[in-house]
Amino acid sequence: MNILVTGGTGYIGSHTAVELLNEGYGVILLDNFSNSKPEVINRIKRITGKDFRSYNIDLLDKKRLGKVFEENQLDAVIHFAGFKAVGESVANPIKYYQNNVVGTLVLCETMSRYSVKKLVFSSSATVYGTDNNSPLTEDMTLSTNNPYGSSKMIIEMILRDLYYSDREWRVSILRYFNPIGAHESGLIGEDPNGEPNNLMPYITQVAVGTRNKLTIFGNDYPTHDGTGIRDYIHVVDLAKGHIKALERVLVEPCIDVFNLGTGIGYSVLDLIRHFEESTGIKIPFVLSGRRPGDVAVCYANPEKAAKTLNWKAEKDIHDMCRDSWRWQSKNPDGYKLV
Ligand code: NAD
Ligand code: UFG
Fold first, then answer.
1. Which helix (H) or strand (E) holds 55?
2. What pLDDT, on a 0 to 100 scale, did the predictor assign at position 278?
3. Nearest residue CA, atom 24 of ligand 2?
4. Protein residue whose Cα sits closest to atom 16 of ligand 2
5. CA 229 to ligand 2 centroid distance, Å
6. Which DSSP string corresponds to 170-199?
7. Mode of pairing for the β-strands spanning 118-124 and 229-230
8. Which of 78, 83, 230, 250 is most buried, most CB within 10 Å of its CB?
9. d(CA 131, CA 142)
10. What is the percent of the chain with per-residue pLDDT over 90, rounded to a whole number?
11. How many CA atoms lie less than 13 Å away from 233 in the CB half-sphere?
12. Domain count, the chain
């Protein structure tokens, strides 16, 4: 079985490529390196000891994308390619709708043309908006408050319409909660451009000395310690969830939506404490006001994925902290100096 992985050198795509290769799938990676480095390809090969083809292609380039389908006998696509910075999407919505929504349309059109109609798609818990109470279930009403989230919601709608228009499509929409951690080899991990938006890469950059201190956004939320609660999930568990979703789309006509989370919420202060315990490194922080658009509490009800996909997150918060730190300490500047 040959699987095209779009955005395959990104954070989640690279970990999923490793799991696919370990499971014996053929992998074809596609990325335009807008938010990743070619070195990731060497690292994936080093971890798995397996070779695969990779393409430096923009998803929006219909012609070159078509060639990938011509040159490879593809069975399914796992689609990670997209932009993901919420703040940037507010400042530049067209860039986000263009890349995320139009990119997905070009991909689906090409898949249809080459009769490859099996797709696993990266959505986000952000589509649950601010009005639903956690634990979040897949049947809740969706809403968004930024163009990034809207792009995910629109793509979910497009994929549903596609399935109802042509029942040969098999689609699995995965709503990720907060992926952190890294492969246990320390060879691949999250490598944000510039100042990190997300909590864990900020913590590890403080730990490694790249940044002086963490700023905690809000300590007046209605939570046990006033800081925001999230469902952190190890990226390797998340990657394994994709294998399960893939197995299902390969055999079953479906349009499914699954939460991929642990079902456990940790506050910002909880995460700092667990990181300090796991690594022995102190994380200095200052308290600041809330970040616009943040919800107080967000965690999954992961039962549907457990029941239907037979998937459950296995790694705990210490694994997540330890593996995030191993990656950062072995690669203080990410892939940049390579
Ligand atoms: P990432 O930025 O590390 O990976 C995305 C990859 O896609 C990058 O390597 C980038 O270069 C590539 N890419 C972007 N646009 C492209 C295009 N037009 N053509 C080809 N390649 C392109 O992000 P990630 O954290 O691995 O996220 C993967 C997917 O999961 C994204 O769709 C993201 O929105 C979604 N997601 C991520 C999170 C998270 O917290 N990381 C949470 C929910 C959903
Ligand atoms: N936080 C800080 N300081 C920081 C960064 C984050 O205190 O420097 C706090 C946030 O306020 C929040 C928590 O840490 O309470 C987690 O924040 P992240 O930015 O790591 O994660 P979010 O839940 O805000 O956002 C993530 C993805 C989004 C996605 C969303 C919902 O980054 O793309 O989950 O799935 F939309």
1. strand 53-56
2. 97
3. 294
4. 199
5. 9
6. EEEEEEE-EEE---TTSSS----SSS-SSH
7. unpaired
8. 78
9. 9
10. 96
11. 30
12. 1
Q: How many angstroms does the Cα of residue 57 sit away from the middle of ligand 2?
A: 29
**Could you tell me the CATH number of the domain that includes residue 45?**
3.40.50.720
Query: For residue 121, is it within any domain?
Result: yes
Query: Where does the pLDDT of residue 337 fall: very low under 50, low under 70, confident under 90, or very high at 90 and above?
Result: low
What's the pLDDT tens digit per position in 128-149? 999 999 999 999 999 999 999 9
- Whether residue 309 is contained in a domain is answered as no
Provide Rg for the chain, Cα atoms.
Answer: 19
Average confidence (pLDDT) over 103-126: 98
User: Which ligand is the nearest neighbour of the Cα of 16?
Assistant: 1
Question: Looking at residue 172, what is its pLDDT?
Answer: 98
Q: In which domain, by residue range, is 93 found? A: 2-182+232-261
Catalytic residue positions, numbered: 148
Give the integer Cα–Cα distance in Å for 73 and 75. 7
Measured in Å, residue 220 CA sits from the centre of ligand 1 at: 31
Cα–Cα distance, 120 to 102 (Å, whole number): 17
Res. 338: pLDDT tops 80: no
Confidence of residue 336 (pLDDT cuts 50, 70, 90): confident
Q: Which amino acid is at 171?
A: V
Distance, in Å, from the CA atom of 95 to the CA atom of 90, rounded to the nearest integer, reads: 10
Give yes or no for residue 293 having a pLDDT over 90: no
Atom number of ligand 1 nearest to Cα 84: 34
Atom of ligand 1 nearest to the CA of 176: 43
Helix (H, G, I), strand (E, B) or coil at 132: coil
The DSSP code for 29 is E
Question: Quick one: which ligand is closest to 299's CA?
Answer: 2
CA distance 90 to 299: 24
Question: How many Cβ atoms are within 10 Å of 94's Cβ, its own excluded?
Answer: 9
